[in-house]
Amino acid sequence: MKITKILVANRGEIAWRVMRTAKEMGIATVAVYSDADVGAPFVRYADQAVRLGPAAASESYLLMEKVIEAALKTKAQAIHPGYGFLSENAEFSDMVEQAGLIFIGPRAEAIRTMGDKLSAKEAVAGFGVPLVPGSKGAIKGIEEAREVLKSTGFPVLIKASAGGGGKGMRIVEREEDFEEQMELAVNEATSAFGNGSVFIEKYVASPRHIEFQILADAHGNIVHLFDRECSVQRRHQKVVEEAPSCVLDDALRSAMGQAAVNVAKACNYRGAGTVEFILDEQHNFYFLEMNTRLQVEHPVTELITGVDLVREMICIAEGQPLSFTQEELYIRGHAIELRVYAEDPANNFLPDIGKLHVYERPDGPGVRVDDGFEQGMEVPIHYDPMISKLCTHASDREAAMDRMIRAIDEYLIVGVQTTLDFGRFVMQHEAFRTGDFDTHFVPKYFTPDKLDRALDEGQQRAGAAVAALIQQGGKGTAVPSSESSASGSKSQSTWRIRRGAPS
Ligand code: ADP
Ligand code: ADP
Ligand code: MG
Fold it and tell me: What is the tens place of the pLDDT at every residue in 243-298?
């Protein structure tokens, strides 16, 4: 069935990104929005927009009936959920289909199986997919736990079956702490996810997080679109991603890719999904989980494969077979993504919410910025504090890193602290440059004094000046003009007033 109108049940950068592809395909778009997002670029970009409710996600973006009602009212035939919010909610996917609409994503059954880390492991076990050594199912008692611990040794991870987003994990280093940690883990899982089921996994020392993008159509064709490395994490959450990973050789890449395809087979998958693995120092890989949605870091895969993943998701939802085979896919160059969060890396990466007094995107060859903000907007306190995803693409990894540094230097954000200067630190770090790093990169190498805040402080001072100007009711807006220093490696901000520029 040809889809002619899509409702995007999300906000910010991902809503805008999905709509852009829809427009290219001649598909009309409907935005839904909360009171915090009135007039946001993604709302203006849509052909139609429907208000859901107040700012809180629980009173707007998470209201399943309201979202479906909006789709029916505007005569959209399909709903794209983006990531987060309702994207991995099997009940929502069911409700959408029951309303006679198309859910642009996997079937509810696959979301259910993969949404629980334990049922996911169970499903893939018979498909030749290596699992992290640990308990076979949920741990019911301390005796059972001791049996498992005999084979894993320490350290171990106690994980919540329903955990996600880096939450619901506890590392236990010593046997004497196990019982207490187990109790805490169960309580935490119960209160955070409404499901106290936990299991044990061997804690892999020095792991790298490597994931594979897959696409599966409704006709049994499954391909993988290679790997992404996401080992630079804070609080078990990704902040820098790249494609391809620099540690895989062709043989390992193809073995892991095949395992990822098998995971998709195991749950009868349809649509775009990501299979996450960890890789140990000996290059053994283990299945971690599958994310049954479009992933935050999907642009790096698009850059190296030339495939528009949102377009493919829409075509698959229409019932079309994949238009390419595994053999036709190849890797072109290297891509890196930096998640630009309104967070203060010098203060434990805590969110730093506020107004974007100055907001100027980088541009030029090989730079892609997926964002949802404009100068003068507030970063709302109600949602994820990600401002944008800054991606660079170049012929090789070194060039992509150098391009990222250049793009970071061009990016001007005044009003909140961001992960931009942290990104510069990563791109310049010896371990990252040589590819010799693991998921401990941030705790191992990063301390606030490593931030190059000279540029940043200049920006913040200027931001205060801008704010003062606005308060005085001045019509002009101060905008930074960057002049490269002689070395060309770092810009120095100077300030001028642009008369009558929009504020
Ligand atoms: P990904 O695995 O796609 O890179 P993350 O691991 O950072 O994304 O987060 C896991 C999921 O949880 C993502 O879909 C993300 O959008 C969602 N998420 C993270 N933080 C929040 C939040 N504060 N509110 C809503 N969704 C969130
Ligand atoms: P989430 O659902 O929160 O994304 P994951 O199981 O995907 O949970 O794990 C998130 C991160 O935690 C991984 O990228 C990795 O850094 C770390 N991690 C998870 N399992 C292990 C393990 N068994 N050993 C070492 N690190 C792990
Ligand atoms: Mg994960």
Answer: 999 999 999 999 999 999 999 999 999 999 999 999 999 999 999 999 999 999 99
194 is written with which tokens? 């409404």
Strands (E), 69-150: 78-80, 102-103
Per-residue pLDDT band at 165 (split at 50, 70, 90) = confident
Reference 412, options 470, 299, 494, 297; nearest CA is 494
| CA–CA dist 241, 403 (Å, integer) | 15
What is the layout of strands, in order, in the sheet containing 28-34?
A: 48-53, 28-34, 5-8, 78-80, 102-103
Q: Which atom of ligand 2 is nearest to the CA of 276?
A: 7
8 A C-beta contact, residue 209 and residue 230: yes
How many angstroms does the Cα of residue 275 sit away from the middle of ligand 3? 9
**SS3 labels along 314-342:** HHHHCCCCCCCCHHHCCCCCEEEEEEEEC
Give the binding-site residues of ligand 1, using a 6 Å CB cut-off: 83-84, 164-165, 237-238, 291, 295-297, 383-384
pLDDT, one tens digit per residue, over 323-359 is 999 999 999 999 999 999 999 999 999 999 999 999 9
CB contact at 8 A, 259 and 275: yes
- 């075509």: which residue's tokens? 315
Burial of 138 (0-12, 13-18, 19+ CB in 10 A): middle
Ligand nearest to the CA of residue 167, numbered in listed order: 2
Residue whose CA lies nearest to ligand 1 atom number 13: 84
Atom of ligand 1 nearest to the CA of 238: 7
Which residues, 6 or more positions from 250, have their beta carbon under 8 angstroms from its beta carbon?
none
What token pair was written down for 134?
């640990």
Contact by Cβ (8 Å): 439, 233: yes
* Cβ 333 vs Cβ 242: under 8 Å: no
Q: Which two tokens stand for residue 246?
A: 């620099």
Q: CA dist 190 to 55, 107, 163, 233, Å?
A: 27, 27, 10, 25
Q: Which of 492, 494, 482, 503 minimizes the C-alpha distance to 363?
A: 482
Whole-prediction pTM:
0.90
Domains of the chain (ranges; CATH) run 5-104 (3.40.50.20), 133-202 (3.30.1490.20), 208-449 (3.30.470.20), 453-499 (no CATH)
